[in-house]
User: Fold these one by one.
Assistant:
Number 1:
Amino acid sequence: METSTANLERERLLKLGEEYREKGYEVFFHPNPEDLPDFLNTYRPDMIVRRGEENVVIEVKSRSSLNSSSNQYLGNLAQAVEKHPGWRFELVMTNPEDTMYSPKAEASLQEHEIESQLQLARQLITQHPESAILYSWSLVEATLRLIAQKEELSLQRFDPLYLIKQLATEGVISKSEYQLLMDALPLRNSIAHGFKTTQITQNSVYELIELTEQLLRTLHTGDEAD
């Protein structure tokens, strides 16, 4: 699984590099410390692209490669970059559909990991709403799986549409929660598959994050949705 994840991230990084080159950017994969400005000399970004006065620091991650340590690193890197005019940070999530959903697949994120990663999702909202919604969606999916496990639901598949409908049918999530998820899913799909969307707003990401936090609380209270 680690090799598969690394390959997916590498392929996405190479594709991004090609896209930036076509737009006239200089592309630097895994730049050495001596090639980085002083404020980045303690970091090893996946890629930096430059065009004129514009500099972009890019990290490519998949859900399975994120943990509390990498979250802290990414958060610190984003803050360091955004402090400098002419520089911006971009976190790109690999497409979750690239990995087969299976009960035998790599273990899902657990509650404490989801709570930790929600903080990074919040940090991304202002500058990178597209990345934030992909990231937030992966966290809400993990939360829904935990809820299904708690409710001892027998799931035939793990794709998000099936999961949401099953939880709604069983009365585990409310009609309003179901509707919010169904509204967010096409946005997430458009971004994940490389389509442009003008519908995404910072508020839509906040709503998804707040819903995830709300669902996490139900794991403690045991209360079903109204």
Note: The beta strands are 26-29, 47-51, 54-61, 87-93.
Number 2:
Amino acid sequence: METAEARTPRRITMTPAARRALDAAGRLFYERGIHAVGVDLIAAEAGVTKKTLYDRFGSKEQIVVEYLADRDERWRAFLAEHLRAAAPAPKARILAVFDASEAWVAEHSPKGCSMVNAHAEISDPAHPAYPVITGQKRWMLGLFTELAGEITPDGAATLGRTLMLLHEGALVAHGLGILPDPIRHARRQAEEALTALAGQRPG
């Protein structure tokens, strides 16, 4: 049986009207929550008819898929730029992920991670957007594990999970607003862990 994480979500071809609708939906979903935003409001904000929305997307669920997949694609491109600009040392590349997240949330995510926020509303694995949410987080874990493997091949899985937990915990704390600069704090903790690990390795 295919798992939710393994499913590849169906995507649509974007027309100009669909792009306007998606931009409006993305803003509304992030600001107000997915369940609180109806198709009528999206259509009104986008300046399109409700019929156009259904013709282009088929359902509100598909709009949610496109919203989250679009956020994920833009984040991955944003992160790739930070990784390309980072020094080639593995430690610098790991810390660049935290730097990218700090810059991303300042510009795009004042209310916290869109995937975490969406998961609070979409916990049913049968929902077509569920694999987008979990897939994004699995991709991040894979990235941290890959980067960790450049430092400690034998301990890549453990270090990758540690970095992932620091990163995701910081994103949640940012969304809650319960402590200042959580991503910067997580970055310092990650740097301390990487420095300690380097000190343990035989010279």
Note: Residues 60-85 form the longest helix (26 residues).
